[in-house]
Amino acid sequence: MNTIRSILAVSALLVILFTFILISFNPGYGLFSFGHPEEKSWRIALYKYYIENGANLSGGANIVTDIVFDLRGYDTLGEATVLFTAIAGALALLRRGGAK
Amino acid sequence: MTRTFSRIVETVADFFLIFIIVFGIYIITHGHLTPGGGFQGGVVLAAGILLLLVAHGFSFARKIPEELLSDLEAIGGIAFILLASLGFGQSFFYNILWHEKLAFAEQVGRFFSGGAIPLMNLSVGLKVVAGITSGMFALSLFGGEES
Amino acid sequence: MISVAAQMVIQGIVLAGIFLTALYALLQKDLLASALMLAAMSLLMSLEFYLLQAPDVAIAEAAVGAGVSTLVLVLGIRKTGRWEE
To answer: How many CB atoms lie within 10 A of CB C7?
Structure first.
């Protein structure tokens, strides 16, 4: 049982590393990163696009909520996961009928 | 041996709880129109409930069952994922309620607009309220209830 | 509409308040007073966020910093001891 678990953990780690390598050797990866000479103009174009079309793309008048819940929804999903994991850990440590 | 504050603190906490809860519900339900959203309103609501906890002593935390809070948090998370996966025809997090004019599809700026965004605000608010409240209740009951 | 100079002055006052409250919370031996001063610092920080036109972040900062975080610190102080040794 223990060996199976360690094999699973190591394979999960390998999958994560492989994904990172795959992403970072992608030729389009560093294209929009800091330091590129035209990065600032692209960023400003993106801001303008969000501000002008955000309300029509997702229907909310508050553009911050549009971006957080619709255009960048994965961000909110990650935040919810972080909160869930933190509460689960706190409850597992501090639960009422827990081990003394 | 739960030591609580005086009657004045309890009364003031009970009085202001109403306004805090109304404000939190306003922030959650108007998240797509005015500043705020699910997380902010949920934290405001949780702060109101925890004000009650501080004013009335820690034994207040025993009155609310732990399983209820855990279930509410799970319901919020599952509702968020389901709302996000409604738009699997296009992609994850595609706002199909708004683009196909199915529900919450009035003009931008009206209350019933925004497609899945108000519903996501509600689910995230529920999740945050239940999560923070259950965590704080567990922390306040940890290590005996003296003090 | 406030002029730019007045905005600079207001933000300078708020930032000085943030710095002074943080310094007081750091140097104080009474942990309860320190926690309350951190709550005051958080309120000033939310005012600063509001002045920088980020009301979403201001609401989150006020609720988390002045509400929940202060409660966590007060809970810890009530569980352990009030004075720093």
So the answer is: 13
Residues A11 and A42 in one domain: no
Q: Do B108 and A61 touch (CB under 8 A)?
A: yes
In a domain, B2, yes or no: no
* Closest to A79 in 3D by CA, of B39, B74, B139: B39
Contact B141 A94 (CB under 8 A): yes
Residue A52's domain comprises 37-100
From first to last of its 100 residues, what are the pLDDT tens digits of chain A? 788 888 988 998 998 888 878 777 766 666 666 666 777 788 888 889 988 888 888 888 888 888 888 888 888 888 888 998 998 888 888 876 554 4
Q: What is the pTM of this model?
A: 0.82
- Which residues in chain B have their CB less than 8 angstroms from residue A70's CB? 93, 95, 115-117
Q: Say if the Cβ atoms of B36 and C59 lie within 8 Å.
A: yes
How many domains does chain A fold into? Answer: 2
The Cα of A85 is separated from the nearest Cα of chain B by a number of Å equal to: 10
CA nearest to A92 within chain B: B138
Distance CA A87, CA B69 (A): 11
Q: Is residue B1 part of a domain?
A: no
Residues A20 and A55 both lie in one domain:
no
ipTM, two decimals, is 0.84
> Which of B40, B46, B54 has the CB atom closest to C74's CB atom?
B54
Picking from C79, A89, C42, A77, the residue whose alpha carbon sits closest to that of residue B92 is: A77
Mutate which: B26, B58, B71, B93, vs A, most A CBs within 10 A: B93
B77 C-beta neighbours (distance < 10 Å), count: 21
